[in-house]
Every structure is written in structure tokens, then in C-alpha cells.
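Archive maintenance. Older records in this collection stored only the sequence; we are now back-filling the structure field for every entry so that each record is complete. The fields below show one back-filled record exactly as it appears after the update. Entries are processed alphabetically, and Iron ABC transporter ATP-binding protein is next in the queue.

ARCHIVE ENTRY
Title: Iron ABC transporter ATP-binding protein
Organism field: Secundilactobacillus mixtipabuli
Length field: 257
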Amino acid sequence: MSLLTMNHLSFHYTGQPNLFERLNCSIQNGEILTILGPNGVGKSTLLKCLMGLLKPSAGTITLEGQALTKLSARQIAQIVAYVPQHVANPGSLTVTDYLVTSRTPYLSFAATPREADYQIVRDNLAKLSLTHLQDQPVNTLSGGQFQMVTIAKALVQQPKLIILDEPTAALDFGRQKQVIDLISALAADHYAVLHTTHNPNHAFMLGHKVGLFSPDGHFETGQADQLLTENRLKKIYGTDLKLIYEATLGRYVCELV
Ligand SMILES: Nc1ncnc2c1ncn2[C@@H]1O[C@H](COP(=O)(O)OP(=O)(O)OP(=O)(O)O)[C@@H](O)[C@H]1O
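Back-filled structure field:
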């Protein structure tokens, strides 16, 4: 059974044409789904549908075989963690206090976090090399530091599926590599990871499944090496580019020309 299944999914904003139509896709434990497509095509909208934040105009979404609409927010939060593209900065909370709020789906009503919850926070800060920020107020972090902290917050939730909307958008080269490596490590650890990116190289680096939006909203899935051809990428992004096989890396590299 797939962890997450999208079946004939369509969506349009009120008074607007469909952004996507009859979209089918699934993701299993241990799998990475990289979603690529031009600006404004509907990637973030699809992710919001998967989180139950927007209601599809047609089709169904199932989580572990159960209709998303039948699950409570708490049940969904125990399976899926979502990091949106724009996360509201929570103000003067410390990084530790901000992260421990992700333990809420596991706490009974009005209970305070336990030592074990703080340990999960410390473990995940260490995993992302963020321990030095643990006592810093979140509203004093740089854009890139805050983006890393939002990813740590998703891990603290201990979900089975992590959905990340452009997780590398604000990150320097080194941190981008760290996040791509983290996504690989999470998949090796049997998490499912669904993420969006504007960099086709991320899909080649990860080497898993890709979901590709065309400018007209058409959605195709396939393995990175097979789906992401030079012609397809040129059409998707409306620009000239080259795919070069880099033997030392053992993968394709996409370069703008
Ligand atoms: N609340 C809304 N009401 C109406 N239209 C919206 C709303 N939110 C987004 N849109 C429109 O829906 C389309 C898809 O937006 P979405 O944010 O899903 O695109 P995206 O593929 O994630 O884009 P980007 O790569 O630029 O982040 C865009 O044309 C956007 O202007």
C-alpha cells in the first residue's frame, strides 16, 4: 500500500480554470518525489491540497489507504510534516521552544512537553548541525538559518512523510548540499520525502522519482534520468540549456547556455 496516493486530482481557484487535472501520483516509504515545474504552475497549490489546506475540485487523496478527508488534523500530523514555502516567523521564541511545539500531535490536551520531547529536539538540531542556535530567538535568525530550523521542526514531528516546499530556496551552496544529502538520508531511513525545487540538478543528485509540471499544468512522473531530457527541460523552462553527463559524478548536470 502506498503511503500517499493522489487519484485523478483536479484543482482550480474560484473563478479560475483548472491548474491541474486528473493528476495521478503516489509515494511509498523510502521514496523521494521531486516536483519540478515553472513558476506559478501549481506546485505549492498541489502541496496544500495534500495537506488538506485546500479542497481539490475533483479526485481523492489517501494517506496509508485512508481518505485524507476522514482523518483528523492530529492523525494527519502524526503521518505528515509540511514545511511551506513561506513560514510565518513565530517571534521571540527560542529555537528549542519553537521546535518542541512540533511534539503537540503526541501530547494530550494541555500537557507540557517532556524531557523525551526536548531530547528529540536536541537530536534533530544536532543532525542538521544547528545546535549552536538552540537558545537563539527565532526572530533573530538569518533567512537561511530559519529555513534550516523549519526543516528541523518537521523532523521533530517524527512523521512518515515530509513535504518540503522549496527547502533550498534561501540556502547557500553548502547548506543546499546538506539539505539534498539529508533528503537522501531520510529516504534511506524509510521516510518518504516529497519536495519542490527549481533546480533540475537536485533531481539528478537524488536520482529518485520526479513529478514534472508542464506550463499547461500537464503532470508526468518518472525516474529522473528518463523523464528529464534536454528537450523536455527546455520546453518546461522556456530557455536553452544543456544536459551533460558528468562521469566523475555518475550523473547528468543541467547547465543554462
Ligand atoms: N489563493 C489564491 N487565489 C487565487 N489564485 C491563487 C491563489 N494562490 C495561488 N494562486 C495562483 O495559482 C497559481 C499557482 O500558484 P502556486 O503558488 O501553486 O504556483 P507554484 O508552481 O508553486 O509557483 P512558484 O514556483 O512560483 O512558487 C498562480 O497563478 C497563483 O497566482
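Update note: The chain has one domain: 4-223. The radius of gyration is 19 Å.
Entry marked complete.
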